[in-house]
Description:
Layout: E1 2-4, E2 11-20, E3 23-28, E4 34-37, E5 50-55, E6 60-67, E7 85-86, E8 93-94, H1 107-110, H2 124-139, H3 144-156, H4 160-173, H5 178-243
Antiparallel strand pairs: 1-2, 2-3, 3-4, 5-6, 7-8
Helix pairs in contact: 2-3, 2-4, 3-5, 4-5
Amino acid sequence: MQIRCEHCGHEGEAADARSVEGAIWVVCGSCGEASPLIRPPKPDAPAPPVESTRYATTGVSVAVERVAVGPPPKPASPAAGLPPHKCPKCGHRQDDALACHKCGLVFANAQKRRPWEEIPPNRKVAFGRVESAFRRLVAEDSDAAAHAEFEAFAVKEQAADHAIRLYRHHLADYPSDEVSQMALNGLVQRAQMVAQSLAREQIKTTVSDASRALKWGLAAVVVLLLAAAGFWVIRLMKAQQHLLP
């Protein structure tokens, strides 16, 4: 498929193509960025509305164009009486406007750079799918089964960390959403289990490498001692030959 990249202007064959939310996404073979390619409607049918959503929850500067059959349902308004300042990193709400009391982020520094929002270019499409699925999830009166399905989807897309951030920012505005809180706890526990498993594997690998290095070191010491002993025996035998009449 011949395309013209919206990001770098490269014209050529698409590196990849996939269907996302009713739209066709193509990946540029030059820069690797993904762009939406929406099929034109039939002449006798009205064009479907196109909705552009930006990752406003965490500030990721990526826009996802998707075909929508109608406007999405609006979630309920946030509970009144919440502290006015929300941490852009962890979502913690508080009255202090200087620094987050939970993660320690200085709010003035967040205006310059937000490294926690940076995602690899090849993961933008996956994060967009997770973001869209989460917005639909919280816009409806979803039950625990729907949240469990979303959790499995986020893990499959390798975007569990992004899903955790989405839940935290959502709960900062809707702290009474108990189903979302339970889903967040499940995702955090899963992430902790994965981290612990990776840590154990890393420890096993480190111990194995250290044991192997120790064995080779002991073998080298034994070889050196044997060589020194052989050299000493040879010199002793030569000295005895000189002493013989």
